Amino acid sequence: MVLTGKRALVTGASRGIGAAIAGALAAEGADVAITYEKSADLAGRVVGEIRSKGRNAVAIRADSADVAQVRASIAGAADALGGLDILVNNAGILRLAGVADIAIDDLQALLDVNVRSPIVATQAALQHIGEGGRIITIGSYFADRIPSHLVGVYAATKSALTAFNKALAREIGSRGITANVVQPGSIATDMNPTEGPFYEPLRALAVNGRYGTPDEIGDAVAFLASDRARYITGTTLTVDGGANA
């Protein structure tokens, strides 16, 4: 239980990778707050599972495209948990379109949720996180390799997070806080189902020939959140089954 006594917030964690991250942190002893936008029932289920592990948990409704709600969710998590030690910027959206075809509304939504929201959440969380704290942002292996023009704009938003993370690590290193990015590969989730049209070409990229699982991302995040990763900061951990090898 390497995270006993730690308090974490995982954004966008009612299902998929976010829910697995929240569960992994709780399994290591952390109390966990999660945010969700619409899926109150699913968020409640995640909270129930965390509480069944003997940990404190709370779900906070917040639209990651809304700056005020993002800031309020940070304050709400810190209040509910009695402080904050770990922030996981997980909330994200996907829009498939080439540069020539992407609608401005979709472009703006990608920028608001995938880029602005993690920056705003981090800014707010730094008012609460002290020495030994962790900020972990979920990117994408598409930031390093673009298998289709349809993911180019989405990939650009995820690539922006790696630059932000490097600067952040330099800014907060003297405070004893680390900042890292985890880049999942193709993970079996509602957003990227194994029965979807992209399954075969994406599965074939991995050297072991399979999609990853949300729990495998959760394990990576739990490691970076622990004291075992205290000398790891400003870097990117790609968990993609060797797809970008």
From TrEMBL:
InterPro entries: NAD(P)-bd_dom_sf, SDR_fam. It comes from the Bacteria. One of its GO terms (molecular function) is oxidoreductase activity. Keywords: Oxidoreductase. It holds the Pfam family adh_short_C2. Belongs to the short-chain dehydrogenases/reductases (SDR) family. This is SDR family oxidoreductase.
